[in-house]
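Appendix B: complex inputs.
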Amino acid sequence: MRSVEISIDGQATTVPEGTTILEACRGRGVDTPTLCYLETLTPVNVCRVCVVEVEGSRTLVPACSRKVEPKMSIQTDSERVRLSRRMVLEFLASSVDLSLVSAEVLGWMKRYGAQPGRHAGGATVAQPPKIDNELYVRDYSKCILCYKCVEACGRDAQNTFALSVAGRGFDAKISTEFGLPLGESACVYCGNCIGVCPTGALRFKSEYDLRRSGTWDESKQKTTDTICPYCGVGCTLRLTVQDNRIVKAMSPPDHEVTRGHLCIKGRFGWRFVQNRGGTS
Amino acid sequence: MDLHLIPGAAATEAERTAIDAVVTSRRRDLLLPALHAAQEAAGWISPGALNHLCRVLDVPPAEAYGVASFYALFSTEPRPPRVVHVCDDLACRIRGGKELRADFERRGEHCLPSPCLGQCDRGPAALVQAEKMQVITSSSRHVEGSRLLARVGKVDPESFDDYRAHGGFRALRRALELGPEGVIREIVDSKLVGRGGAAFPAGRKWDAVARAPERPHHLVCNADESEPGTFKDRVLLEEDPYAIVEAMTIAGIATGCDRGYLYVRGEYPLASSRMTKAIDQARVRGFLRGFEIEVRRGAGAYICGEETALFNSIEGFRGEPRNKPPFPTQKGLFGKPTLVNNVETLANVLGIVLEGGATFPSVETKLFCVSGCVPKPGTYEVRFGTTLRELLKIAGAGPLRTVLLGGAAGTFLTPEEFDVPLTFEGTRAIGASLGSGVVMALDETVDLADIVLRIARFFREESCGQCVPCRVGTRRQEEILSRMARGSDESTLLDDVGQVMKDASICGLGHTASWAAQSAIRKLKLFSRAR
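Resulting structure:
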């Protein structure tokens, strides 16, 4: 493969042709925030928090999807970049409930000086959670519209197409056809949407219930990797356990078989483990 | 893929018949026509109709619903079969749009507010949406021009023979003599730049598509004229449709396209029916020369005028812009090399081919849509270099407070700036842009704050919602401007919102959404206490 010479923040570097700016930045240890990006999904470049300044380009460009070009000169920490990243984080934090995002995201908010309070009184996406089945909850007041669940439900993983973005503008939302309950939709309960959701908008019902009752306690949780017992594929399950009970089942995104995705059995079919009352 | 349809929802006979009539094969790009058929048959997109069109097109219902709910002219909830969309946008707003709506309501009509309907020269206007669409206007149009508009008002737009009698299809004959390379050379020599708003050299696009090794090539005529204040393309499509057919045929043959698509905004029913007739007549008479043209109707979405959103719309997906690069000349419609030109750009091709590219710069004209506070609102064709003041005089304008140049995505000018020559360079020099040729005249009687807030609402309503800077930014901008109108000083926050939209949005809608408001505040001292 041919290599391409570029410069990142004034430092010359050489990367293979076809590398994205994001990969090049991360390869050099330049921490670049991302929200809608996931290694296992096609980049949709909609959140725009990863934007960088490329010399000669009128607007900023998304690092996650833009591939490097020879002699590209990239600035990742200019005034313009910092302002855009700050504003994207402010926009999201002022319109969406980000209480369950990772510490990493909170770190970016701090780094870029995001002050969501500047937009106090502005419109939000607040709404009651949708609880229409026993397996998972859709709490769209926490949805940043990153499209990951749509991709995981569709072409990038499950090929079920139960979810789409509907509506337009600030009112755009993730929806089934006509907003039908999941049980009447094409959903097969693989839970791959939960696996990719970055904000906790999509959660296991088990986690949702524990949080509501105030007994969700991460300090008492540990994770255990095991192999799903159901079929011969051999998917790795990463089980989160609290008080000796499984509270959620994920799969590592870098796992070569699952790429983080599971089926309904692996994702939700573990209740028998804790049926200690015993069946005869 | 196993389709999972909506339980217990069946299409009515009328819905099924209407959908089946347009779905001639199982192609995703027939989704938009099928949705139009469903909407027209029942007055809304019912779950039963959605089921039926999903089954015949093999499209998942969630996706089809996502597409249907994207467009303002489709309803995914039951509503009366007859709806009147009354324009409350800039020009109609100051010419009695409110009274027109009250009139309709008194007559018991179900009214909805509408963004600009492209009838600013004869507003206030409304669009009646029933089984068929119909535009209601309040006065007759004014047209003045000698090249692009030469036939307008003189030729019978429904007659092939009359078009020929007025010199029609001479350019096509000349183009066939020149051959594809010869035609492209003339376009390059003419230095014609695109009239859609971005002012990109047309010849470079034609050349790039012609040379693209990947096949097939596609041609798209962008007739989704939706910039508030713009109506010039409508005049050409409605009153000289064969000229656009001829120009598309020349462009298609020159750049090696098999097929061309005319994407016309859903609010232009007369334009789409006249264009459809003209294409059919030209085909029957053998004047398409094997080239094929399809008319695709939009369904109420400003964003679909953005070329990559337009591709997605034709292909049957949500009209969300794509990231560029790749550019349309490399990967456009259906992922193939695509030439996209605006209607006015194509109209210029005829003269260039007939007279030669070299002479074009000396005779070149531009269409302007003059509306607002002028006695003779209309479409004016003037030579490049005419000043704004001269154009306003032709339209009979009196003293003005400002002109909004370029539309909602344009900028306000002060009277001191009216001597600007109406050229791409001239306007750029004062930090403005010709955009789509909108010249909206506003005098002291107009409430400027109201106009600026309407522009902010326009962008909020028309943002596709895909990227954060525009989805939330257009909302925040409107909120901040409303507070500023009530006396709050939030210009720093407004600037930050404008900057992120300009820098980090995916497409031109977000890039330009702050311009008008910013120029009103800076240049016209809107919201400043001094005034």
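The first strand of chain A starts at residue 3 and ends at 8.
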